[in-house]
Amino acid sequence: MLQDTASMFGLLSASVRLHILWLLADGEQDVTSLAAACGQSVATVSHHLGKLKLAGLVDVRRHGRRHVYVATEPHVIEVVVLAINTRLAQKKPRTRRRAFGS
After folding, report:
1. Given this model, what pLDDT does residue 91 score?
2. Where are the alpha helices (DSSP H) in 1-102?
3. Which H/E stretch holds residue 68?
4. Are 53 and 59 within 8 A, CB to CB?
5. ∠ CA(12), CA(17), CA(19), 5° rounding?
6. Under CATH, which number does the domain 2-89 receive?
7. pLDDT reading at 102 higher than 70
8. What percentage of residues in the chain have a pLDDT greater than 70?
9. Phi, psi dihedral angles at 96 (to 5 degrees)
């Protein structure tokens, strides 16, 4: 079980895959939309989606000619979203407080 968890975190060590899962947290998207949002080529995003699908973290279905991807593991998505949102909050500029009496 620990080895499986370590493998999953290894899979998530690629920033593109983290970005894809973060985007899929808002709902299903096709590969073209994901590629545009990630700033990557469709081929690159398709490659990473294939790895995520093999790991069972995303699923795909057809809508006409489009392949639409959806996240399948809500707990993993929660961890990804929490981690990214925490980092984003830490990056916000802080206003400096003046010392008392200054």
Report:
1. 83
2. 2-11, 15-24, 31-38, 42-54, 74-91
3. strand 66-71
4. yes
5. 110
6. 1.10.10.10
7. no
8. 90
9. -85, 135
Question: If you search the block for the tokens 């593991």, which residue do you land on?
Answer: 73
DSSP letter string, 54-67: HTTSEEEEEETTEE
Tell me how long the chain is.
102
Q: Model confidence over 6-43: pLDDT tens digits?
A: 998 999 999 999 999 999 999 999 999 999 999 999 99
pLDDT for the residue numbered 1? 82
What is the spatial distance between Cα 23 and Cα 81, in angstroms, rounded to a whole number?
Answer: 9
* pTM of full prediction above 0.85: no
What is the bridge-based pairing of β-strands 66-71 and 58-63? antiparallel
CA distances from 46 to 33, 58, 97, 99 (A): 11, 12, 47, 53
**Where are the chain's structural domains?**
2-89
94: DSSP letter = P
